[in-house]
Amino acid sequence: MPYEFSIERGDQTLPEIVGLYRQHYGEMQDRLSSSGVQIGDYNPRWDEYIKAWVGGWLVNYIVRLNGVAVGYSNVYITQDMHNSEWIAQEDTIYLLPEHRNGTGRKFVQFVLADLKTRGVKRAFVTTQTDLRTGLLCKRLGFKDVAAQLMYSF
Known about the structure:
Structural class: alpha+beta
Helix content: 25-40%
């Protein structure tokens, strides 16, 4: 059975996919730690996520196989403060490791197609958990336009 991609209200899907969020964070925490960066333990602000999902400015995309969620992405949509164009900023994009087999490319294409129908002019991503995601995004047309640096206190 093929993977299915959908847009679902995050506040309604949350009980089902909270385990994916936890696993994603753990992978990101491990990867950053291997680079010498320590981040706090998993403690999401679900109330803020829920406000954003209900408010419509955070879109929750889901990847399913046989009806079971195996990946997700949250994308904020807002208007650029400088020119009022609609822009998107990825909050998270994640697939369980055993499903990183070409499904990611199709998933990103699904997300981009939806964002385009919403009038989004630019979409921004930051790769932290699996740096190969950046290579995937470049193959799909993303361009390096900035450098993101982190300073830890």
